[in-house]
Specification:
- With about 110 residues, this protein is an alpha+beta fold.
- The chain has 5 helices and 4 strands.
- The chain has one domain: Alpha-Beta Plaits (2-Layer Sandwich).
- A 4-stranded antiparallel β-sheet has the order 2-3-1-4.
Length: about 110
């Protein structure tokens, strides 16, 4: 199962002293690097400067494994929000079925 995750820091993160923000950010990045090392090509992580959020796509064996992966140190400290979406492969079979349903709905 593939999942899209969008992570953002909560407003409470901004109120932290600079040293604590750096500590929390380092902890989160090290956690992400650990997931990447463990999952290899089944995990992709993206970020954009100034967007204040990160995006990842990962393939997990179960929903439980996916939710376990969201237990980063910043989450446990209460500084991160997640948007989580299950992804469906949009292969040719999926697209043909979708078109068939849309044409029937006319």
């Amino acid at each position: 199962m593939k999942f899209l995750t969008i992570a953002t820091f909560k407003d409470t993160f901004s109120a932290l002293p600079k040293d604590e923000k750096i500590k929390q950010t380092i902890s989160a990045v090290e956690y992400i690097m650990g997931i990447k090392k463990k999952m290899g090509d089944n995990f992709h992580f993206y970020g954009t400067v100034g967007w204040n959020r990160t995006v990842s796509i990962g393939e997990y064996d179960s929903v439980e494994e996916y939710y376990q992966s969201l237990q980063s140190p910043t989450t446990l400290e209460g500084f991160t929000n997640y948007e989580c979406y299950a992804l469906i492969e949009a292969d040719e079979k999926f697209l043909k079925t979708y078109l068939k349903q849309m044409k029937a709905a006319k």
